[in-house]
C-alpha cells in the first residue's frame, strides 16, 4: 500500500503545472500567461489583420 501511495505522489509531482509561488490562489486563478496582453514587440498582427477578422 505504501509503494502505491508513493507512486501516486510521484505521478502527481510529474503532472504538476509550474506556478509562481509569490501569487495567492485567487491571483493564480484569475491570471495566467495566456490571458495577459501580448507585448507590442511580440505581436505578429497589424491593423489589417484585426479588420479582416
TrEMBL record:
<protein>
    <submittedName>
        <fullName>Uncharacterized protein</fullName>
    </submittedName>
</protein>
Amino acid at each position: 500500500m505504501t509503494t502505491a501511495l508513493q507512486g501516486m505522489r510521484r505521478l502527481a509531482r510529474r503532472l504538476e503545472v509550474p506556478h509562481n509561488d509569490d501569487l495567492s490562489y485567487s491571483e493564480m486563478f484569475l491570471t495566467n500567461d495566456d490571458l495577459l496582453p501580448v507585448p507590442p514587440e511580440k505581436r505578429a498582427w497589424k491593423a489589417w489583420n484585426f479588420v479582416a477578422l
